[in-house]
Amino acid sequence: MAEQEKEAALPSKENFSEWYNDILQKGEIMDVRYPVKGLYVWYPFGFNLRRNVYDLIRQLLDENHQETMFPLLIPENEFMKEAEHIKGFEDEVYWVTHGGMSPLDVKLALRPTSETAIYPMYKLWVRSHADLPLRLYQIVNTFRYETKHTRPLIRLREITSFKEAHTVHATWDDAAAQVDEAIRLYTEFYRKLAIPVLASKRPDWDKFPGADYTIATDALMPDGRTLQVGTAHHLGDNFAKTFDIQYEDAEGEQVYAHQTCYGISERSVAALISIHGDDKGLMMPPEVAPVQVAIIPIIFKKAEDVLQACEKVKEELEAAGIRVKLDASDNRPGAKYYKWEMKGVPVRLELGPRDLKKNAAMLVRRDTGEKQQVPLDNIKEEVLSLFSAIQDNLYKTAEQGLEKRIIKCESVPEIKKNLASGIAKVFWCGDKECGLKLEDEVGAGILGIPSSEDKCQGKCVVCDGDADTMVYVARTY
Amino acid sequence: MAEQEKEAALPSKENFSEWYNDILQKGEIMDVRYPVKGLYVWYPFGFNLRRNVYDLIRQLLDENHQETMFPLLIPENEFMKEAEHIKGFEDEVYWVTHGGMSPLDVKLALRPTSETAIYPMYKLWVRSHADLPLRLYQIVNTFRYETKHTRPLIRLREITSFKEAHTVHATWDDAAAQVDEAIRLYTEFYRKLAIPVLASKRPDWDKFPGADYTIATDALMPDGRTLQVGTAHHLGDNFAKTFDIQYEDAEGEQVYAHQTCYGISERSVAALISIHGDDKGLMMPPEVAPVQVAIIPIIFKKAEDVLQACEKVKEELEAAGIRVKLDASDNRPGAKYYKWEMKGVPVRLELGPRDLKKNAAMLVRRDTGEKQQVPLDNIKEEVLSLFSAIQDNLYKTAEQGLEKRIIKCESVPEIKKNLASGIAKVFWCGDKECGLKLEDEVGAGILGIPSSEDKCQGKCVVCDGDADTMVYVARTY
Prior knowledge:
The structure is a homodimer. Chain A is an alpha+beta fold. Chain A is built from 14 helices and 25 strands. Chain A has helices at residues 16-26, 44-62, 76-79, 83-89, 115-125, 172-192, 238-243, 267-276, 303-319, 333-342, 353-357, 379-403, 412-419, 432-442, and strands at residues 30-31, 41-42, 66-67, 73-75, 94-99, 102-110, 134-143, 158-169, 198-201, 213-220, 226-236, 246-248, 254-256, 258-264, 293-297, 324-326, 347-351, 360-365, 371-375, 406-408, 423-427, 445-450, 458-459, 466-467, 470-474. In chain A, the strands form 6 sheets. In chain A, strands 3-7-8-14-11-10-9-22-25-21-20 form an 11-stranded mixed β-sheet. A 5-stranded mixed β-sheet of chain A has the order 16-15-17-18-19, sandwiched between helices. The longest helix of chain A has 25 residues, at 379-403. Chains A and B meet through strand 2, helix 2, strand 3, strand 5 and strand 6 of A and strand 2, helix 2, strand 3, strand 5 and strand 6 of B. Chains A, B: It comes from Methanolobus zinderi. Chains A, B: Residues 38-285 form the Aminoacyl-transfer RNA synthetases class-II family profile domain.
């Protein structure tokens, strides 16, 4: 599609916002030209990446969740049942008011999230303690009427790929354990995308509307802002009471159930693109790359031999389940390198007459640029071992980038200084007033208390009172 | 979930409508209790079937199509561009008029189908003949404000699983060839679901709004009505002119492109359930069955041995990619048989102490009820060969059922008589007036001219004029 548009170079990643918008188009991830604000189109290449990413999350969840699907449209009366919940969403809900030419009797909300669509059914499905735990998920489109600046994959009016899980448990503690399990699953998921995430318990004023508490995972973006890329909510029995979800316990008593929900969206793809990409384009972790190996025949005279050898390598790699593209187009090798680098293909395989004479091929890593000649007889093993090295290197690089940008700070000016490049870690007494004051003074948000951190003693950066925990502070998307 | 509800027997399939509603609930396909008319909930088991069915269609399309995703919301001005198209849909469109508390500047339609969402982008994507053919598809939810009687999987207000392909070609003939290819793909897809379909060219008054012509595939339901389970539309250059989709041909001229679109919905699942099921419940073609083998341990005293052997069989089958459920619950074998028959599991494997002594297991076919004892050493091959026999038998049975219910008729009374059980095949002169009169008199629809049929000579059943083709007439869903 319109090759000529893609020849211009990317802006440097130092200008992150510009680079991001540009790479979505040049890397053929999203087209931003759809004629409604906040709605975007997945290019086939981008959607292929999305498929691989969501296959991963399905794989992880399928071990003890089941996939399902609930309607998009929620009748106003159900949607309005949970007071906190509706307060949190009412400004953002799209309303369907007409079918054909006629006004509807009951207005229908486009789900901003599906609690109020799912829980009336859970009331019917949950009867006895033997039905618990119930763990379902769906991958659906959800809608938010965002008034802030929208941004592809990050802040959308149609979230096209919302994976939301909804679980039901006998006790509050079971639900709490499920929240921890969700965060573990999400961390593992992001590990496969080579993205290190920080898990932290959101302050009370930033939890999910209707929840007892929220734990979120954040990724650190190149511009020093954090992107919330996963949330898990302990719903207590709040929704169970609203939607009358009760079960009969072992003693025959009717008891309110306890619930959790947790979600991931296409922000996972945004983080992947942003964290790994460079000035040459996308850089894909092999596990999810739509094309894992691009074979470039280096052709002078004896084209047939070389093309045949390339074809043979392609077949051999494909037989091992590797996603391969043989670029036999008329473009010059340099143009091909440019193209497949832009697309983030982890390994380029060059094969010319001289390689063929040695029964070898040249493998080039997208992440480091390193080249090595390897024997064709061993090509599958060599490629797979490179994949694993690349995956490790991407994660390690991202992890180092994250670690060095988390700075312990002891004063407001120090926080402000460090927020330019990353995350501040500070003592906070836990008091809401101090928290809000801190957010206001540094112009950033408290992400929350790190999930896996030992207690420690210090003085609140705001009031100088005793604090027994540190929190992350960051500029957030 | 609520086991007790499922113990009551199904109504006989002779009362098809009752049987259908009941099996959706008892077989845990769809829950019809969602509080909005025409919207239903996929049970996890039903969604698992849906996943397998849609994986099949993805597999078929991925050979030369690419998957993508466009927004749900279409701005009114784009939606209103193609006059015929909007006429066909305006009574059925849901409109979003409010975001949060505020009215929107431009009303947004929930896509009833995506031509008007996709083609403004195709205008940007198609530049030169080298970009053609372009073949994309998406699997999305679409919406129709149905005023007729709604029915799960068949007539919905939210079609949850609309697979729509949209292709662009250089010439009218290329597009026509793509329509034929789509029908070939759909026939192959339904072959894998063991469903024979009839392809026919819809009469002009029944084509897709905005198309040159429509070819559809229909399945014959147990009550003698046909269900349209796939359509392919030749759009000519109608939409290309409306949305200005032009390409530069080899001579450097700007030329309007030619387009097709073709769709399949969860009606594919409705047909599968309806055609194969029986009075005992669902009957799944092995290829898409969520559970392909249910292992039932027959336990008296030496339970451990038997359970271990069952576990071993399960592992061996799973290693071969077979979807297995080992039912080690406390229920009696009879209750287990009932349950897994209801769920349509193609093969039941019984294993008790006597079988174990012979190093054998009993395999029971869901379709014929036949039992055979087979050696455990060969279990994988035995099961796979049964799958293939079952798949063939389901198709053969359905095909015979279809063929014997297509009756050539020579008069209106004869047509009316035969429509009770199936499809009438009659001569029609092709004149619209005759066609509409025929539909009116027999209280049924002309499906259209069979796609793969030789010309033949006869007299129009309405006007007695010359007719060189026969058409299908049927009561339709």
